[in-house]
Amino acid sequence: MLTNLSIKNYALIDSLAVGFKNKLSIITGETGAGKSILLGALGLVLGKRAESSTLKDTSKKCIIEGQFSVENYNLESFFEENDLDFEAETIIRREILPSGKSRAFINDTPTTLQVLNQLSEKLIDVHSQHQTIELSDTNFQFQIIDAMANNFAKIESYKRGLKLYNKLVKELKALKQNQEAEKEKYEYNLYLFEELNAANLKVGEQEEIEQMLDKLNNIEEIKLNLSEAQSLALNEEIGVQTLLNSLTNNVSKIASFSNDYNELYERVLSLKIEFDDITNEIENANEHVNFDPLELEKLNDRLQLIYNLQKKHTVNSVEELLLLQEELSVKVSAVQNSSTIIKEKEDEVQDVATKIDVLAKNIFNKRQKVIPVLIKKLEKILSNLGMENTRFKFDIQHSSSYFQHGKDELQLLISANKGLNFGELKKVASGGELSRIMLAVKSILSSYLKLPTIIFDEIDTGVSGDVSQKMADIMQEMSMNMQVITITHLPQIAAKGQQHYKVYKQDISNNIVTQLKTLSNDERIIEIAEMLGGKNITSTAIEHAKELLH
């Protein structure tokens, strides 16, 4: 619950601090005294957008702090998920700088407005006069029904399933679109792939063919040089081999005379052995040098095929052609296998749809079951509020469409008087009736939602007399389960509060400021007497005020 509120440099407020207690608290004050300013400041703490125009002194920053007792509301997981320090007495602070920028803190940890809004939804429900419009909002109507039906856990599961379903449907749509697009290119891609596949290309073969062609195209020069080299090596009189034999023979004769000569001999012998091996290879190469015109033609044709493919696909190597072949294979296979892939995705979509359909049907059944109970509670409360002839009808239909909170379509109809047909709420109910209906709804919700605090901003607009007394009784009953803060103009409601605060304006050194104070018992009597009879307080008004308070 809200335990303290501190406001500095906001609108007409210089500095203001007030402590709140549990049960029912009342805030009163003349029109224009600044009650809306108080709610505006609280709204900033709860995450509403800030404007620099709200600063009283534009040269200083505005600071608003709200302290909340949260130990009994199972919020530890929320704090952990958002990297916040959990404190039983949590402090939320907003700072609005003269530049217009604002900062938000939860227990002195900087946070975002999104996180602040999420937390505030778990702390306070601020009901203003315009909020009665929500009664005609289908989402709000579902919230009432689902709170009574204890549907929230199932709805969260449904939402997770719906998110997955929408994701899969999107993927399926993309697959089908891709299939159509690829089908148009399929024949051409298949032709290119089969052409490359038929070429049976191998890594490094282009370089190998080019070397072989270089050899065949220079066969005469190769043959001539090999023959001359063979002659130089093997000539019986002046051939290198004959000379090396003589050299080896001469050195061998002195090898035994010293280690140096022996080492020299071994080196010459090694040279002779290596040269003999080279000579054999030259002879062998010379014998196998043949010109094959068919082989030359075959290699030229193969190389030309590779060149043509490289030119066609604007690449420079066989490796790039093989990479392109692999890419084309993937594209061709994707089209050929797309029907299977699409079928698998369709099955996946259907599987998720079946699961969320079961959840949605379960949610619908629980809604159907609880609606008569809701109608009975609403009509009973409103009967005590002077709307005894009011009747409600919730027309709920289970559809085939997926909505954010299930598959149901809902229409709330009302008949305000006997003999009248049912019509739409906003067309049938007056402003005062809408306020009473909203109070009835909030009263019912307070028994099902564990919300720490609710604030009513003049929900009693348009009612008076006995009805206002009954409205006060309902608020007092609600305050047994939660903190209720009510801004009111009606003395019957003001007298029901356990605490009473007054908002007023004060002239301090020609500076009009808004103030807030807690009223004592005697001050409450005077305030309620003024609400009953105006500024000229009579003894009758005083007695009436005392009667209301007791």
Secondary-structure map:
Elements lengths: L1 E9 L2 E7 L4 E5 L6 H11 L16 E8 L6 H6 L7 E8 L5 E5 L2 E3 L1 H9 L2 E4 L10 H12 L2 H48 L5 H12 L2 H16 L5 H13 L6 H29 L5 H20 L5 H67 L6 E13 L2 E10 L7 E2 H4 L2 H15 L7 E5 L7 H14 L4 E5 L3 H4 L4 E9 L4 E7 L2 H13 L5 H11 L1
Helix pairs in contact: 4-11, 5-11, 6-10, 7-9, 8-9, 11-13, 13-14, 16-17
Describe this structure in words.
- With 550 residues, the chain is α/β, with parallel strands linked by helices.
- Among the domains are: 1-123 and 451-519, P-loop containing nucleotide triphosphate hydrolases (Rossmann fold), CATH 3.40.50.300; 192-327, no CATH class; 521-550, no CATH class.
- The protein is 55% helix and 18% strand.
- The chain is built from 17 helices and 15 strands.
- The strands form three sheets. The protein has a six-stranded antiparallel β-sheet with strand order 2-1-4-5-6-7. It has a six-stranded mixed β-sheet with strand order 8-12-13-3-14-15. The protein has a three-stranded antiparallel β-sheet with strand order 9-10-11.
- Helix 11 packs across helix 13.
Name the descriptors:
550 residues; alpha/beta; Rossmann fold; 6-stranded antiparallel β-sheet; 6-stranded mixed β-sheet; 17 helices; 15 strands; 55% helix; elongated
What structural category arises from helix and sheet content? alpha/beta
Instruction: Report how far the terminal alpha carbons are from each other.
Output: 27 Å
CATH architecture call of the domain at 1-123 and 451-519: 3-Layer(aba) Sandwich
Largest sheet: 6 strands, antiparallel
CATH class of the domain at 1-123 and 451-519: Alpha Beta
Helicity range: 55-70%
Give the low-pLDDT segments.
none
Instruction: Kindly report the spatial arrangement of strands forming the biggest sheet.
Output: 2-1-4-5-6-7
In CATH, the topology of the domain at 1-123 and 451-519 is named Rossmann fold
